[in-house]
Amino acid sequence: MKKIAIFASGAGSNARQIIDHFKNSAYATVHLIVCNNPAAGVLQIASAENINVLLIEKNKFKSTGYVSELNSYGIEFIALAGFLWKLPEVLIEFFPGKIINIHPALLPAFGGKGMYGNAVHNAVINAKEKQSGITIHYVDEKYDHGKIIYQVTCPVTNDDTVESLAQKIHLLEHKHYPAEIEKILRH
Ligand code: GRF
Fold first, then answer.
1. Which residues pair with 153 in a beta bridge?
2. Is 109 exposed, middle or buried (0-12, 13-18, 19+ CB in 10 A)?
3. Which atom of ligand 1 has the smallest separation from the CA of 173?
4. Which of 11, 24, 31, 66 could form a disulfide with 41 if both were Cys (CB 3.0 to 4.6 A apart)?
């Protein structure tokens, strides 16, 4: 059974979908939620689902990447889902090709530091883009920069607001992220 860690520090709607996707899987399981925010909604999901939680602190994360803790949980794959800190090199080197992220726009556009949540959708609408979408990509030491694995688009219409676009994007994320994680794990 492959053990997945989800790094999430927000509401956790993607974490929820990933947990549900692997709930009855004989292949992989969400074994750990890693979180830097003790008030994050994702922690309630973890507790309701009886999933281990590792609450992390910035300085220790920067210096150790919590590699020994992840290792002692037997983690083999990491999916970021609403995790905003840059990953330290020590962590990326410990899990080569085993860390992925989902970004709520079509990278390489609308990515980088500070480009998360509604800031992304706002920028897409202000740029009068005709389409947006999601990007699933490997994680390297730069924000939103690693090799792209998968993208899917949705139209941006004239009457779209930040909220309506966010909703469309969340639906795409929920539909595709768990399935892509499974594909990568089985590859
Ligand atoms: C998602 O939109 C994802 O693209 C981004 O962070 C958001 C997390 O949302 N990386 P949620 O906490 O999963 O609802």
1. 133
2. middle
3. 4
4. 11
